[in-house]
Amino acid sequence: MKRLVILGAGESGVGTALLAKAKGYNVFVSDKGKIKEKYKEVLIHNEIEWEEEQHTEVKILNANLVMKSPGIPDKVALIQKLISNNIPVISEIEFASKYTNATIVGITGSNGKTTTASLTHHILKQELNVGLAGNIGDSFAKQILEEDYKNYVLEISSFQLDGIVDFKPNIAVLTNITPDHLDRYDYKFENYINSKFRIALNQTKEDYLIYDADDEVITNWLKQNTIQSTLLPFSLKKTFENGAYLDKENIKITIDNIEIIMPTKNLALEGKHNIKNAMAASTVSHLLKIRKQTIRESLENFHGVEHRLEQVLKINKVQYINDSKATNVNATYYALESMDAPTVWIVGGVDKGNDYTELFPFINEKVKAIICLGVDNEKLMENFSNMVDVIVETQFMSEAVKIAYKVAEAGDNVLLSPACASFDLFENYEDRGRQFKNAVRNL
């Protein structure tokens, strides 16, 4: 009986444990932290052996295969030990994909992947049997076990791609690549870029790679490296024989001489970056033969994902906006770009090696006050203190929102767009976003 050890008992770990047990593996789940009650109950109910607050090496180093949570870096000693013992260490995506023959759409990128994955799923589900998994919702492994969809849309992070060997999506989408998570890639941007392109690693010419052709990082990599995939670019600036581009107010998508046209004026999501997300999702849908009318209607009635430029409330003519999902500078760039009123900006958290210079023009033009919300705000203060009249520090969301309320005047925006990870003061970006919304509602 093959022994599978799972490191990390979160959504992906527990989902993998269930699928592996059903497929006849001897399964052991080990978590260095405390396991959440809801996951513990599932493990106990399914009689799967587990431990928490420790990694017992003798029970781990005898594995045939190890599935690790994407949150565990490769450089930790235990992972290095497994690798030197020639024990394969893979991600949930790699493990689970071996047990499905579904058509897989894999979506990655530094920003826009959740919105693009949710939008793609929203369109496809009108006409196809389709699941949404990966970095979002219920785990991929669990859905294969319980739902067995004919199609999957997977939002895939670079950490999940680092743990693939044979996995290949039939359709891959690369939304963009900007510096992010560099703390996990030895502070080398090229390592992170290569990691993102692993999504196309095993693709053949029967498979498709849909990508942003306005992104120089992507286009330069494609010039210097060969991949087998059939390429379908999208762009706001260029035109293509095969791919998607903007023609005045319309998105034009051509695949194998079949053209469809989508007007952009009624898109539910605002902002240039959302036109790109719509292009990517529509290209996938066109490939999978979804009717043009269905795509158009779906684009017009899709209202985005929680914690992504989410309008919370208007109080005394001040609009409060929750963009907690902006965990890197580029995401905050899109948020500030889309502000059309003086903005009180709440920023900060765990800095992943951020360079804030690309934000400077927007700060000069649109930001009237900055509230730094983090354990260590020194870098933010250095960057921004001479750019705005009001800059304050706090370590409490409720206080940050109260300060914003005092500073903002009728017609202003209050924007939570942290540009950083959330782990210093919050459980995760969702927790940060919910605390913001609660604090706004309690004003």
UniProtKB/TrEMBL annotation:
Write out the annotated subcellular location: Cytoplasm
Q: Which GO terms describe its molecular function?
A: ATP binding; UDP-N-acetylmuramoylalanine-D-glutamate ligase activity
| An annotated GO cellular component | cytoplasm
Q: Where is the Mur ligase central domain?
A: 107-284
| Record-level GO BP terms | cell division; cell wall organization; peptidoglycan biosynthetic process; regulation of cell shape
Q: Which keywords, in A-to-Z order, does the entry hold?
A: ATP-binding, Cell cycle, Cell division, Cell shape, Cell wall biogenesis/degradation, Cytoplasm, Ligase, Nucleotide-binding, Peptidoglycan synthesis
Pathways per UniProt: Cell wall biogenesis; peptidoglycan biosynthesis
Q: What EC designation does it have?
A: 6.3.2.9
Q: Please list the residue ranges annotated as the Mur ligase C-terminal domain.
A: 307-420
**Pfam families from the xrefs?**
Mur_ligase_C, Mur_ligase_M, MurD_N
In terms of InterPro entries, this protein maps to:
Mur-like_cat_sf, Mur_ligase_C, Mur_ligase_C_dom_sf, Mur_ligase_cen, MurD
| Annotated catalysed reactions | UDP-N-acetyl-alpha-D-muramoyl-L-alanine + D-glutamate + ATP = UDP-N-acetyl-alpha-D-muramoyl-L-alanyl-D-glutamate + ADP + phosphate + H(+)
Name the residues that bind ATP: 109-115
To which protein family does this belong? Answer: Belongs to the MurCDEF family.
Q: What does this protein do?
A: Cell wall formation. Catalyzes the addition of glutamate to the nucleotide precursor UDP-N-acetylmuramoyl-L-alanine (UMA).
Q: Which HAMAP family match?
A: MurD (MF_00639)
| Name the record gives this protein | UDP-N-acetylmuramoylalanine--D-glutamate ligase
- Whose protein is this, by species? Lacinutrix venerupis
